[in-house]
Amino acid sequence: MASIGSDGAQQTQGELQISSSSTTSNSSRDSDMASKLQKATSLTIQVLQEITDDFSEERKIGQGAYGKVYVAKLENGEDIAVKILYNNTPEIDDVQFQREFQNLMRLEHHNIVKLVGYCYDTQRQPMQYMGKTIFAERTYRALCFDYMQNGSLQKHITAECDGLDWRTRFKIIKGTCEGLKHLHEGFEEPIYHLDLKPDNILLDKNMVPKLADFGLSKLFGDQQTMTTHTPVGTIGYLPMEFLHGNIVSNKFDIFSLGVVMIKIIAGDEAYSRSVEMHRGDFLDLALSWSASSHSRMNEDLVNLRALTRSEAILYAEKSSKFPVLVTVTAPPWRHAEEIPRTSVDLVVVLGKINWLSAYYLEKAMMIVIDNLGPNDRLSIVLFDSDAHRLMELTYMSDRGQAEARLKINELVDGRATNIGAGLQEGDQILRGREVEEGDSRLGCIMLLTDSNDMSILGQEISTEYPVHTFGVDNHDPETMKYIADKTSGTYSFVKWDAEDVRDSFGLFINGITKVVATSVKITLRAHEGVAISSIESGCYVNRLNSDEMSGEIEINDIYAGERKNFIIYLAVKEGNNKLVTIGGGYQSIHGSKRLADMDVFILRPRSGCSPAKLAMHRDVAAELARLKLVKELSILVARGQRLTFYNVDQLWDTVRLSEDSRNADEETMSRLGKCVAEIRKVACLPDLNPKQVPYLMSWLSCHQWQRATTKGLLYESGAFTLAQPGVSHADGKDSE
């Protein structure tokens, strides 16, 4: 196996001759080139055959007019790209090879592909000629580059509402411009690329663009405009002055850059429409792209709504715990591709499991892999008594997905005994990201295991990234919920059945790939004469200032179509009608956005008020009933009280006979009753600790975070599933 370094340890049999026509009188430039040539790594054709599996079809990643490109693996595990040129016409091939080689040797820039080695190897090979065996010379020419994990830009060209987010598109445009500027202005004698197009812009693992394919590039001296009859460029990227007069200047590349920019912003189809347009019409089209972008940026991704317990309180009446329902909603989008969502960095932490479960684990992982977008990244960690990285964070392009599937297919069965080690490894992967990536991308961990390792219950675990836990087989529910709660994740349990696996992991991935807002903060400010008694926010962090005049609720992230309900209890004095001002803000891919303040009022009639205005609002009643059931079950779990028919029935009677439940709608109470019935099914088991009931623990996780979880069967997992476009949730019910 070969290694690439600067010592030139691998030597070719033939020597690369630099054409005198490309030299210059500038002695400093000659000296610089000579130094770079000495450091260039030369490889034999035998070495290239070894690291590309003899140029196998499985390793071919591209093919162009001048050669084929293969991915090769060095002995240190690093991947490189090997471009081997065709050997059709030796004289032309030599000119082509030497031109690209010289240009690449000259160029060092973070937006230009880096040359890491070359091959110019002439061998004598036996062949039959007129009945005799003769030895003919064959020259192999190849260039080796850093491998670009995300392939060419062409693979990522889509319409403006689909594919890459605007932040990534802008980064690609900016990097392409900087690379081209280096060619034009980075040298005393500029270099013109002359074939700039999406196929010749490569993207590394971080979607950083690198200009490539300098076979047509030319070095220009003082005369920076010339006429040429040599074929250059690609139809569709050629300026009019070249088409009509074969004139080449720096404007050639600038025209090509403009075409590339339009395609990055709006896709191939939009560019095709623009070609035949009058200049004024094209400007209008470009402005519409800008307006569309700004429209999406200015549109509220998070909405607030507030409902008081009733429309009115009699003027002389006081209340120490007057409930106000605050609803935070991220509206569903008309089409999934329109969601301006945050890109995801997902680390899947897998515990080794038995061979039978491995079959379903593979199916589960394929659902996750197939539903991540090309701007999302995936890493895989496997743990038994220790943790091992199977795959670093990798963009889920076609190639990235293929690599992930291969890693999953290679899994072997075993026994997972150290959950802590797996989680620590997952945290390290996410912490290792660049600062900019951590700020702009959603990092989260998915833990999937059948382990009943309970040792982590007494350990401090990192709360930096949410861990969504999935328990299978004989896992420990208490441990799974403990990890999820500590990290702001959710706990699901999965029965190994093809349909359940599809539904369970589809539910999860459908959520994390629709995060439209992060760092959501709801602020509360009581008005004069009113105090905030308490805040009911489930597992979400809330803070109430000591003066009881202000407070806040923090939501880590929210999915498109998701809704969160919170109850604010107010101490209201006689006569107060202006209660509280609700506001806040959030982060999205467009930056920070402030939520408009909303004042909450109530009517204070002195007398003669209609009963309807004094009646409890059914949405508030429904939420209070749900919270009461959550609270009663949480107490039962915390006490470790044994489940019996009696205590489950007694608990349900306490909830359903309360004033809140009597005012709630029948549908809400029916749905909560079904949940209690599921818990009651296991109450007949002797000495059953409620912490060991997967359905109950997952139900609590679902309702404390108000986020859908799988509780064994999708039928039992309806609460808090994402709202669909066109479905109204004004009544405040859970989406089923």
TrEMBL record:
Q: Which GO terms describe its molecular function?
A: ATP binding; protein serine/threonine kinase activity
| Limits of the VWFA domain | 368-512
Q: Which Gene3D superfamilies match?
A: Phosphorylase Kinase, domain 1, Transferase(Phosphotransferase) domain 1, von Willebrand factor, type A domain
Residues where ATP binds = K83
Comp. bias intervals (Polar residues): 8-18
Q: Does the keyword Kinase apply?
A: yes
Q: What is its EC number?
A: 2.7.11.1
Domain Protein kinase, by residue range, is: 55-325
The record lists the catalysed reaction(s) as: L-threonyl-[protein] + ATP = O-phospho-L-threonyl-[protein] + ADP + H(+); L-seryl-[protein] + ATP = O-phospho-L-seryl-[protein] + ADP + H(+)
UniProtKB keywords: ATP-binding, Kinase, Nucleotide-binding, Serine/threonine-protein kinase, Transferase
- Top-level lineage group: Eukaryota
List all Low complexity biased stretches: 19-28
Classification via SMART domains: S_TKc, VWA
Where does the record place the region Disordered? 1-35
- Which SUPFAM superfamilies does the UniProt entry name for this protein? Protein kinase-like (PK-like), vWA-like
Q: Which Pfam families match?
A: Pkinase, VWA
Under which name does UniProt file this protein?
Answer: non-specific serine/threonine protein kinase
Could you tell me which species this protein originates from?
Lolium multiflorum (Italian ryegrass)
- Output the lineage of the source organism: Eukaryota, Viridiplantae, Streptophyta, Embryophyta, Tracheophyta
